[in-house]
Amino acid sequence: MAFVIVACCIALLILLLTWGKLNAFLAFLIVAIVSGIWLNVPVQKIPAALQKGIGDTVGSLMMILTLGAMLGKLVAESGAAKQIANTLMQTFGPRYVQWALLIAGFIIGIPLYYGVGFVLMVPLIFSVIYQYKLPAVYIGLPTLAALSVTHGFLPPHPSPVVLVGQFNANMGLTLMYGLAVAIPAVIIAGPVFARWLKKIPTGPLQLFKGNTEHTKPLPGKLNSFLTALLPVFLLMITTILPKNNFTGDAPIVMLFCLLIATFTLGILQQTPVKAVMSTYTEAVKDVAMILLIIAGAGALKEVLAQSGVSEQIAMEMQTWPIHPLVLGWLMAAIIRACVGSATIAGITAAGMVAPLVLKGYADPNLMVLSVGAGSLMFSHVNDAGFWMFKEYFNLSLKNTLLSWSIMETIVGIAGLAGVLILDTII
Length: 426
Description:
gluconate transmembrane transporter activity; transport; transmembrane helix; transmembrane; Gnt-I system high-affinity gluconate transporter; 18 helices
């Protein structure tokens, strides 16, 4: 019965988000209250449960998400992202231009949020398409696959960071495993799959034609690469070195990286500190709604926890003939297909399978990746990314489904396969 009630509550959440068009934060709060009443949580305890869930979830994540947003915004605004892309293009040359763009998308996708990375990379993709007269989807899709994978698998992106906290995983170890899973997934869903898309028809591609170049000098090549990738290096190093509660803490690592970036991509580039701080202010605005969505999911998770239903569901799931990692992936995939948001799919599924992880039935670091892979499955008409790709590349609905939607599905399946392979090795 417990599972039926929770399934109905998830269905209500999906209806409010899709049919009702409600703001995700409001939808989560409404469903959390309904869940509490339905699961016999004393009414007078529900407000406290909402506050505790929001505080516990956002409190541990606010620093790393806001600092990550600030760093990503500065990488974009300073021109470092463009320098990374240009350098790779020059290094690989016209013959391997697809791979150059893919690597650029992967590197840029680590510090940048998906929407920012998408908007940043698309003009570069189109400049290559015009210059070399190459098929648009064939060239562009691998780059966007790389952005999608970093968004779903790798910290400091919102969903992986939330999942690391909920499963008590290790941020650095999750990042190392994530890279091992992400790289093959990007190659399969990108260049390998794109080989069948060379003849896919597109409409007239006039977007970004004759787009103006960056008006101020770009940061140096070494400066751009090292600053963008510094969080990755430091998080991996803190995993390998002896544990230190201060220097090994992910928010402290991100704060250090942001201070370095403020100097290397700001002051060193003769950008006034006031202008850099203004960039950071804009970054916080960009991430505010993401934090609210995460907060709402935390409220729902806490209500389910206080009702005891999470433990009941975990007990039931233990008897299912499905591997816990596959179960987490499947739940995230179903919610993703219904809701469209990878972040919502990931953090909602996490609340369902967290008890299994905390009881030791699955490796927490691998569960982060498994749920993340599921949250990227089959993007279709309810996903903003689907429409961005369709409109930017001027595709028909059918060809968007045949290219973008299949690419996202391949990413999700390849991600799960990589996780299961790691599970047999670790």
